[in-house]
Amino acid sequence: MFSFKNVSFIKSNNIILDNISCKIPNNKTTVIMGKNGSGKTTFLKILNKIFPPTLGNLDSNLDKPVPMLFQSPIIFENTVEYNYLILNKIKNNVINKKWFDAFSLNQIKNKNINTLSGGEKQKLFLSRIMSFDQNNLFLDEPNQGLDLESEKLFVNLLLNEKQKNKTIVLTLHDFKIAQKIADFIIYLDKGKVLLFEETSIFFKKFDY
Length: 208
Known about the structure:
alpha/beta; 2 domains; 5-stranded mixed sheet; 3-stranded antiparallel sheet; 32% helix
């Protein structure tokens, strides 16, 4: 379990997260929601030990950050296949190609990454992070740029990951997707937790 205890994060005198206390359960899917600038990405990076809290403490079962999906992932001036494989080669990991195959990326593996559309790049970034097959998943706006068909496939793939009892934490703006995949939803507003409930209870309390 991940536990925030009175966590605040301050950058350039701006309070990004403000005295947050909550627990993220293991083996469940938690979706972080909120308007732009509400602190979602910072919350996720603190959870993954990329940023230390300015104030307060994070109790975590992680010793160090794990690979996560960023909104602007690193790319290399090379092919799709090179960008997919390179991080696993550096870390010497066994590669899980399920998402790569599901998104039919083999068909474009020899293309230069800079010739891809935004949606194609996002499918590559998703497939790359999922190739690590890790038990803790942190995904920042994973559906950005996806068309409707790809988004449906993403949801189905993520639901399959849920069946493996992984701890999944992701940021979203789409309430319909959140309702399908989340066990718990956190709604942030101006750096504070406005609501944190099981999904069924959340949608009874929150009017969107």
